[in-house]
Each structure stands twice: as C-alpha cells, then as structure tokens.
Design brief:
Blueprint (H helix, E strand, L loop, with lengths): L1 H22 L9 H10 L8 H15 L7 E3 L7 E3 L4 E12 L2 E15 L5 E15 L3 E14 L7 E16 L6 E16 L5 E14 L2 E11 L4 E6 L2 E6 L5 E3 L1
Antiparallel strand pairs: 1-2, 3-4, 4-5, 5-6, 6-7, 7-8, 8-9, 9-10, 10-11, 11-12, 12-13
C-alpha cells in the first residue's frame, strides 16, 4: 500500500509538471530573443545602413529640395554641381558608406531614387524614395553580409509643416553570424513597416512614430520567426517589443539593453 501511494503521488506530480510546461509560452529554439533583437538592431542603426541611416538620407534630400525658394529645387548630387529637380520628375544618386564606428566596421553601397510630387501651387509636397543596397557589417554581437531595399514617402515639405513624416517599408536579408548565446550562423530576412515616423525640421532627428517588424530565417538548429513592434522615443533610441521581451536600442550604435 505504501508503494502504491508513492506511485500515485509521483504520477500526480508528473501530471502537474506536464500541465505547467504545456501552458508556458513557446520560445524559438533556433535563435534566442536576444539574437533576434540583434538582428532587429542591425535593421535600425546608422552604422549598419539601417532605418536611422535611411531616414537621415531621405530627409537630408528633402531639406535640399525645399531649400531653394526660386529657380527649381536642388537635390543631393555627387560633387559640387547643383541639380535642379522639377515637379513630377525622378532623380537618382548613389553612395558608398564605410568605416569604423563604436566597435563596429561596415561597408555598404546604396542607390536612391527620388520622385518629387508637388501641390496645386507647384510647391514641393512629398518625395517618394526607393533604396537598394548591399554590403557587410561586423559588430560586437552580430556580423552580417546582406542586401536590402526600401520604398518610403517623406511628406511635410511645405513651410507650414513642423515635421517631416515618413511612411513605408524597409527590407534586408542575407547571411548572419551571432556572437552571443549559441553563437550560431544562418540566414535571416527582416521586414519593417514604418508608420508616421516624424523627423525634426531642419535638424532631421527622429522624434516619434512606430513600426512593426518581422524577423525570420534559418540556423543550424532550425527555422525561426519573430514579430514585434517598435516605438521611436525622440532621443536617438527606440523600444523594441518582441516575444514578450522589451529592449532599448540605440539608433546610432545598434547597442541593445534588455529590460
């Protein structure tokens, strides 16, 4: 009888443990949330040609477009020549960005096109920007070799608007190597949708807005998939919420802190 009672107790404890395990949230075994946050940070920070770099480039172009009151609009161009853009036309420029910043090295090629749309008074109203890029990044937590694209519209070009406003989508994909956790390597694909991201005029500092992000890919342990939300704080940082974990990300360096 004593043996039977002990067996019944053991079965009850095993059942209770099983129920607790079943009710716990599932976590991707392929990559940790910290590793996913590092991938997200690479799509956001300036030193990996992330969204902070892209928004700075398109807002810099918008400042140049609206800087001339007469004689047409001036856009960014290579060299000292000034190129004037007419309403409804598309111009393009390209750049190579490389260097070392905050313990990270990077080397990217980027090409932008800018389509200027004007209002009924033939004044610059918004610019539709497309971006294609490729290159590599090597930071403390992550290294990657990737390519990407973006299609965003920047509004608020009129003198009455107090901020630039950016809406659109940014994508990047390629090979990564994580330097944290299980330090695995694989392939990743990142998609960020920006909603009413505001930048100061003329300083071009991100001071608000939100985004959604999806991160998927493969690793030696299998496939992974995460979705999350991003809130821009206005102080060169943003909050990333992913898999019920919150991270503070520096938009300049890509450094993240788990909260």
């Amino acid at each position: 009888m004593k043996t039977l009672k002990l067996s019944m107790i053991a079965l009850l404890l095993l059942g209770a443990f099983s129920c607790k395990k079943d009710n716990s949230p599932a976590v991707s075994a392929a990559v940790t949330t910290d590793q996913a946050a590092d991938m997200a940070a690479s799509s956001l920070s300036s030193n990996s040609l992330g969204i902070a770099s892209m928004t700075d480039a398109v807002s810099s172009n918008a400042v140049a477009v609206t800087s001339l009151s007469t004689g047409g609009q001036t856009v960014n161009s290579v060299g000292i020549k000034s190129i004037k853009q007419a309403c409804g036309t598309t111009l393009s420029d390209s750049t190579t960005v490389s260097g070392t910043l905050d313990s990270a090295t990077f080397d990217y090629f980027a090409k932008y096109t800018h389509t200027l749309n004007c209002n009924a008074n033939e004044q610059p109203d918004n610019i539709v920007n497309t971006l294609i890029f490729h290159g590599d990044f090597n930071g403390p937590n992550l290294s990657s070799n990737d390519s990407g694209s973006a299609n965003v519209t920047i509004a608020g070009l009129t003198s009455q608007a107090t901020n630039f406003v950016i809406n659109g989508e940014y994508k990047r994909s390629g090979a990564y190597t994580s330097k944290v956790g299980n330090k695995g390597s694989g392939n990743s694909s990142i998609d960020v949708v920006l909603t009413n991201v505001t930048l100061t005029k003329p300083g071009r500092k991100i001071n608000g807005g939100t985004a959604t992000i999806s991160i998927s890919g493969t690793s030696p342990k299998g496939s992974f998939s995460y979705t999350g939300t991003i809130t821009f704080n206005g102080d060169n940082t943003c909050w990333l919420n992913i898999a019920k974990v919150r991270y503070l990300i520096d938009l300049h360096t890509g450094f993240r802190i788990r909260k």
